[in-house]
Each structure stands twice: as C-alpha cells, then as structure tokens.
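Um, can you check?
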Amino acid sequence: MKKTIRVSVDLNNLRSFPRGHVNKKLLDATSERLIKLHERQDDLEAMQDAAKYAKGVRERIGLSQLEFSNRIEVSLETIRNWEQGKRSPTGAAKALLKILDRAPEIALLALGN
C-alpha cells in the first residue's frame, strides 16, 4: 500500500518546499551501467503507456485496427506497432490521437473519410 503525502508550497518561497534527503553513498555507488538500465526501463514503460493509450483511443471509437488505419490514413502496420509498444506515436499522430480521444465525432468528421 502506497502512502500519499500532500504538501503545499509557495513557488516564490523556497523555504516552503519540503526538505528532502539524499543518500550520497547510494548516489555515488550508482554506476553508469545502472543508470542506462533504468533509462531503458523507463523508456519501455513509456512505450507501454503510449501503446495502451493508442489502443484505448481506437477501442473507444469502436473501430478495428484496419478501419482505424483507413480513417486516420496511417498504415495498418503503424497502428499495430503503436498498440504492441514497438513504436510510439509522435508529432502530428500524437496530436491527432489526443483530438480523437477528446472529440472523436468532430475529429472523424474533419477527416471526412
């Protein structure tokens, strides 16, 4: 069970920030190899989050992967790669997914196909 602690801070007053603690021995003992490992793990988690998001948007609209790829004019292979976490939507595709998520009727109407 995670413990949640809420704090209030005044961004103009550094003294209002909670005091932290850094384990300098642990920090000094952290190798570059371990840092790279954590970066890879973070990247994999981000890819999985993007995959869940892309799939969730498509499913909320109620389209198959093929129908979705045709409607947004993105290859079926790309849709599959997004949903399997092999690739992550970026740029315009990421923006389009956000619009489809928040206003699907309008987005699909604007796409007109």
In short: Residues 52-113 form a domain with the 434 Repressor (Amino-terminal Domain) fold (CATH 1.10.260.40).
